[in-house]
Design a protein that fits this description.
The complex is a heterodimer of chains A (about 200) and B (about 150). Chain A is an alpha/beta fold and about 200 residues long. Chain A contains 8 helices and 6 strands. In chain A, strands 3-2-1-4 form a 4-stranded mixed beta sheet, sandwiched between helices. In chain A, strands 5-6 form a two-stranded parallel ribbon. Chain B has a single domain, classed as Up-down Bundle (Butyryl-CoA Dehydrogenase, subunit A, domain 3). Chain B has 7 helices and no strands. In chain B, helix 2 crosses helix 3. Chain B is globular. Classes of the chains: A alpha/beta (about 200), B mainly alpha (about 150). The interface between A and B is large, with 37 and 44 residues.
């Protein structure tokens, strides 16, 4: 094996990177991939957005390394995951508008089907809380038709897979307490302030 | 992660896209590499959930790439003819090498590419090309001999 031959065969392939990105975008747009993800910068730090065919299925504060999160997604949902910024454009745009104060409601589709029924009921009730207003754990449990399940409602909110978009930050403790927030209380405070509910 | 879990497909795309591209470039030329690349990863994505987690994704991808490259050569009836040489990818001083590689019969070209780009074993090359291990060794040997003579 001559060196020049090996060098030529292994020469850098700069076009491979673009081809890979084109592939991922196409696979996401054509529904060949089961899940597409991207990360976006926000005033509250980097966010991970994941969408499937049914709409946005996860949005998390990216406080942990990305790879283990993706590995968990692959295991629990599907390994057919690609990175595609364009696939997440509708939600990214709405988020930008929300953070700039020009959007009060999220309209791009959300994947409710991926949730367990109780969590879905609680999070749908939460999504109905208007911008700038707040409710309580008892309030959303009651709205979901399970008035006595406020503790379970708290757990469902704590595991909200669609942070910010399903506004669990608008749910406070009955009696005026601030309640918890999976992304940290500073973020909850920031969001309520942004919405003028502080 | 247990050994039964497949990693996210994106990981394969990131880790192996360069070698898939290089392999295709060597077999079909840079011009056709783009289409073959897209076909390779689409076929891989579709079949991915059925991939046995203990198999080597790299050898698997390069085998698919080889199949797509051969399909392409059949389609374009270029099997016996020279493929276009990759002007924008191959550094100029190496054009001569690319011409020599492109002039090899497809099986020898594939064997050389899979061995020296893909680092595949003779057994894996034989599986990819669909021939016996001995035949793949011979293709590699003949291909290298021709190249050595010419360079």
């Amino acid at each position: 094996m001559s060196d020049p031959l090996e060098r030529a065969l292994r020469a850098p392939a700069p076009r491979a990177h673009d081809a890979a990105r084109r592939f991922a975008d196409h696979a996401a747009a054509a529904g060949e991939a089961d899940l597409a993800y991207t990360t976006v910068a926000s005033p509250l730090g980097e966010l991970l957005l994941v969408a499937g065919r049914g709409g946005l299925t996860q949005m998390h504060y990216l406080d942990e390394p990305l790879d283990p999160l993706l590995a968990t997604l692959a295991r629990r949902r599907s390994p057919r995951i690609v990175e595609s910024a364009s696939a997440l454009d509708p939600w990214r745009r709405e988020l930008d508008e929300y953070f700039s104060g020009s959007r009060r409601r999220f309209e791009a589709p959300l994947d409710w089907e991926a949730m367990a029924p109780f969590q879905r009921a609680i999070l749908r009730a939460t999504a109905a809380i208007p911008y700038g207003e707040t409710s309580t754990y008892t309030g959303v449990a009651t709205a979901a038709g399970r008035p006595r399940a406020q503790r379970a409602a708290g757990n469902a909110l704590g595991a909200n897979p669609l942070a910010i978009i399903v506004p669990c930050h608008r749910v406070l403790r009955s009696g005026g307490g601030f309640g918890g927030y999976t992304g940290g209380l500073q973020r909850k405070h920031f969001l309520l302030e942004l919405e003028g509910a502080g | 992660m247990s050994d039964r879990d497949l990693p996210p497909f994106q990981q394969l795309l990131e880790r192996h896209s360069e070698d898939v591209w290089r392999t295709l470039r060597a077999i079909v030329g840079a011009q056709a590499a783009e289409d073959c690349f897209q076909e390779t990863f689409l076929a891989a994505l579709r079949a991915y959930p059925r991939l046995r987690p203990d198999s080597k994704p790299r050898a698997w991808l390069l085998t698919i790439a080889h199949n797509k490259a051969i399909d392409h050569l059949r389609r374009t009836r270029l099997q016996e003819a020279e493929v276009e040489v990759a002007a924008e990818d191959a550094p100029a001083p190496e054009d001569e090498i690319w011409s020599a590689v492109a002039a090899l019969p497809p099986r020898q070209r594939a064997a050389v590419a899979l061995r020296y780009i893909g680092d595949l074993s003779h057994r894996e090359i034989a599986a990819a090309i669909g021939c016996s291990e001995e035949a793949s060794r011979r293709s590699l040997h003949d291909g290298l001999q021709t190249l050595r003579r010419q360079l």
